[in-house]
Structures are given as structure tokens and as C-alpha cells.
């Protein structure tokens, strides 16, 4: 038995040494030194060293040794540790790298994920200090363009019963994967880790307890209930890095297909290691790919396999077509793979030139990745529907993950999707052309100038029923800026100039950067953060108007009803919006009542905002630009002010003439509604004299909200399913607002809030027939509680600590 144990330890140690050497081989000389310094800064704690945050921070790594190469790293970066005393009571069990480092998947852009396994005796305050130090170290390494992410791990985190994880589920749980995955995360660690300092890891199957080794648990009994949460988490990670997430989601699918007799990648690695195979074939990322390949070949899924191969190749960053690149340990293995795949030289050159891909190439690849990830999600959803949700997957977090995914995978025609730049350094275009097709009534965007020959060589990169949406998509995704020249084919030169001018003004308003979205924002109904009104972009009535701007100012005329002909000078409005969920939308309104419809649309979302909404108005008119911009902006501010003044017991009314018709704009706590006042003479006369009326009625027309608690009316938001739960003596009050704000109410007997939320979540996740498409629109749950006498809607599962954390 001791001999067998020695054999296992020696094999694991040899693999560990080889992995460290492979990691070093793929790093620049400076980053090799930085990798070695990670353990130094965790072992020693001093004001003279990076990461110092006070004298009480735990330090010291068990069995830490300062070898020649580490000493050299210290000297190179002027780190003097010669005067430091040895640490008598080390508080860190070990420091380990995991993920793509030291594998086929390591490329120059790869970050370093470090698991910092601390002593089980470390207090919560000690963990907090260590976590703060880790953040300081991350910032220090970032100075050298070296991304190091630390995750604190309790040695019992994966061993204790998951019904008691509260004290152990610390920083790593929140940042690394939330509650979405547990054992699958440990399996990924086992298959990819190598030691930077501390105890060796007993990661092989059925490893026996040994005080000289660190055992974090056995992944043999991997529960089926975890696959769904893990797939959700990988989809969420895929929003930023879809090529990487796709490989992991497909691995989950392959694992699930073999359940309960799953052959884990970590087991394959161990078998290679025991057989004495330390070649490039015994590599975590390569064996991950092999597992996916075997699964897809078994299914005959050639299309998904081809995209998977491209993702694997791009993730590795080997670039075989570039002959002048240095050859590393992966080169010949990758060369053989590509030969077996029968890839052409032109495909290789295209993939190796990924840093210079234009927006059309990115668009195509993004679509392929999204389609494949959603396909895997469907398969894993079907697998998970026969099992219970993992107990560790908190319902509140399930809602957050799906809400975030909804903002990315939503098929709403009005939403403007972000284009993931993947590897491209810049996709900015000097010329963009718009062509309208009368056949399908769509606008098409081309990345070229107006020369007719260009359209034979290029395909459109984006299309939409809305011309404004093309403009926003290009600005939002960095395809256009204020230097880009726009052309509208088969239209006058002035139309092209207006396109260019509109895009130039949008450049500062539509920012191509990630939007900070807090957890609390996703728990609550959306509201607007930014609104941009684009006036007369599609059709411009001022072109044929014979008057002069100065006369409108002099007469203080109403731009919605000018002169004896009562001409409306605003015919088309495109409303561009950014909401609190980080979504960009573009809605189009056209015709005489476009201003009324646009006001009615934006008022509820402006009213719900607890801070001022950024409002900008851009007129594309030939004439009356400043007048239309000023009038519409004033009307917007008035609308939101009146909607906030209106109470549930009263409706405020305001008069506005549009064309030849006088309208009443009615505001209450739900928003705005307009009515033709032509047949209401006395009412019209009152509005004409007083401009504003307060009406003693609680609703806008015939609607079911009059008997609803006012707080629910404030939270009502179209596009989200919302449950409001109130515990009363006679039972549990359940109010439901669906995506169209239609109301249902019933009283549930003999069940508590937690049980009901779990049942409803399971239903909406696996059984709801309306959620067959991947819109991820799981409900939002609110508890109705009285706080200091006032009825409040509290998001279910929220803690004060997590309210402002980014998600």
C-alpha cells in the first residue's frame, strides 16, 4: 500500500513539474518572473512588499521554499526579502494555478486564475483581510499587463454537506461561479491545476487521506442536479468569452450524455499519467477537446464539431500559417490536428488573422457561437428537467443569471445587440452605406463606399426594418464614429449628409463600453437610464414647409400644429433607450400622433427611475431643428414630472394640440394615456384655461389595477413576469403581472413563501410552455412586507451586502 501511494504521488508530482515548465515556456521572460512572485507575496507579508494591508493579514504558505529561479525573479524586480524572518505558523495550505494556464488553451491574452487554499482555522475576519490583500496584488500585477485573479478556498468547502455551506462559501463562491456549480468547478480544478507553493493536491480518483497532501474532495459522485446551474453559468460567462464558454458548455453536454457513468476529463488525465504518458496528448485542454469530439462524432454532429475545432484553435493562439512565429511545445500536435481536420491554407490564414477581422466576420462567428451555446443549453435543460434543481443553486441567483442572459440572447426585434469583438483590435469603418430594399421593406448596412462595384464584393453586415437601428448598431459596436462617412444609396446627397451628421451627434451619446449593472437592478423592474429621441430621421415634413424658422420663434408657435394648415413638423420619432438592465433598444413611431405614442411609451420607464434620466433630442430636419428639439425635450420633462405628481387616487390631465386635433394627456401612477378632446367641449375649455387638471379617478380608462396595492402599480413593467407575495392570515396572497402587464390574483393555502417560489421557479424553468424559446425570462419575485407601516415590495432572496454588487 505505501508503495502504491508513493507511485501515485510521484506520478502526480512529475505531471505538476511538467505543467509548471509548460506554463513558463508560454510566458514572456518578465511574466515568468511574475508567476514565481505570486507565492512569495502570499508567504511574506510586509509593508515593503506589494499587497500590504496592515499587520493582521494572515500569511505564510506551508512548505514554502525559495529556489534559485524565484530568487532571480525577486532580484530582477527589486524585491528584497533577505531580511524577512521565516513564518512560524503558516496560514495558507497551498497556492495553485488552474484553468488554461500550462495547457493548449494558454495564449498571450490568458489570465492566471489562482486558488488560495487557506487554513481551516482561519477566522472570517482573517479571510476578509486575505481577500483584500489579494485584490491589492491583482492591481499590482496588472501594472505589468499580467492579469492574476485570486479565489479564496476553504479546505472543507467541497467536502461538507451542501446544506451547511454558509460559512465556507466565501469570496470564491460569489466571484467564481456563485452557487451555480460546485463539484463541476472542483473537477475543472483537478484536471487543470498545478502547484505554485504549498501542499501537493491529492486530486486523483479515490485518493486516500494523507496529512502531507491536500484533499478537497472526491468528484466521483458528481450530482446530475448541478449540470443545469453550471450550464447557465457558462452561458453567462459566454457573454464575454463565447469561444471559451462554448467548449465548457459542450463538455457539460458530453458529461450529461454519459450520466451516471460519466468519464471525466480529470480521470483521462490521471490514466495517461499512471501510464507514464507526459506528452502533449496528456493535456487538460486537449483532452477536453477530445471528449467533445468523441461525443459530437457519436451524434454525427459535423457542423457543431467544425465550429468547436475553430474555437479550440483560436483559443490556443498557435497561428500555424505564420512561419516567423516561435515554435512551442504545442506546435507539432496542433499541426497534426489541423492536417487531420483537412483545413485549407486560406481558412488557416483567416483564423490566424482574427485580430483584424471586420464586423461582418465577427457577426457571423458570434451568431454561430450563440446558436451552438443555445443548442447545448436546450440539451442540458432537457437533461435537467428529469432531475431536481441543485439545492446549492439559490433561486435568487437563478433569477439573476437568467435575467442577465435574457438581455443578451433576447430575440426582441427592438433590442440592439452588442457585437462581441472577440479578438479584433478594431472594427471601425471609414465608409458605411445604407440600401433600402422595397422587396422585404428592410434597410441593409454595407461596410463600403457608394461605388456600385463594392456591393458585388461585400455582403451586408446588418439589416433592420428601422433605418435608425442600423445607425445605433454601428455606433454602439464601434463600427462607426464621428469620422465615419455615411452614404444612403439611391437617395439625394443631402440624405447622406444628414446620416453622417446624425451619426456624428450620436457618437458621444451611444458609448461603446460595458454598462455597470448591479444585482439590485436585475432584481427590480427595469427603468430608463438614457433616452435619445431622433426626430424626422425617416421622413421630414419641414422639407416642404415654406415658412422660416425665425417666424416660429417670433410667434412662439407650436411645432406640432403650425399655421393655418395646422401642420405637424414632427412626423417620425426613433426612441433610442438604455435601461437599468443594460439593454439598448430602438423603437420607431411615425405619423401625426408619433409624439403622443412616444410619450406614452417612455413615461412609465422614466417615472420608475430613482435618479434623473439622461435625455437628449436630435433633430434631423432641414428646418426648425432647434425648435423641435427644445419642444420635445420640454414635453418629455413635463411628462415625467406630471406622472410623478399624479397619485393613485387622482389623474392629472394636460392639453396638447397635434395637427388639427386637441388631445388630453392623462397621467396617473401607471404612466400616460391620451384621448381626443374634440367632442368634450366643456372639458376642453377647462384644459384650455387652466392647462392642467386633477381628476378624482384612480385609473386610465378601463383597467384592473384600481384595487391593486399601489406599490405593485409602481413596480409594474412590461416585458417581465412578476410575482408579488403577501402572507396573510387567510393564506398567501399571490399577485401576478405577466409580460403584457395583465393581472392575475389568487390566494394560496397551506404553503409558505419559500416553498412556493421554489415550485414556481422549477415550473417556469422546465415546464412553462410559453418558455420554449431561449428567452430566459424567468419571473421576478417580490415579498410584500410592511416596513414602518408602509407596504414595501422587497426582492426575494436579497441581502443588504449584495445589493450594490455588480453582476
Automatic annotation (TrEMBL):
InterPro entries (alphabetical): Adenylate_cyclase_1, Adenylate_cyclase_1_CS, Adenylate_cyclase_1_N
Chemical reaction(s) catalysed: ATP = 3',5'-cyclic AMP + diphosphate
Molecular-function GO term, any one: ATP binding
Keywords: ATP-binding, cAMP biosynthesis, Cytoplasm, Lyase, Nucleotide-binding
One matching Pfam family: Adenylate_cycl
Enzyme class: lyase
Compartmental location: Cytoplasm
Domain Adenylate cyclase class-I N-terminal residues, every copy: 5-204
EC number(s) on file: 4.6.1.1
Any Gene Ontology biological process: cAMP biosynthetic process
GO cellular component: cytoplasm
Assigned protein family: Belongs to the adenylyl cyclase class-1 family.
Name of the molecule in the record: Adenylate cyclase
Naturally occurring in which organism (per UniProt): Shewanella fidelis
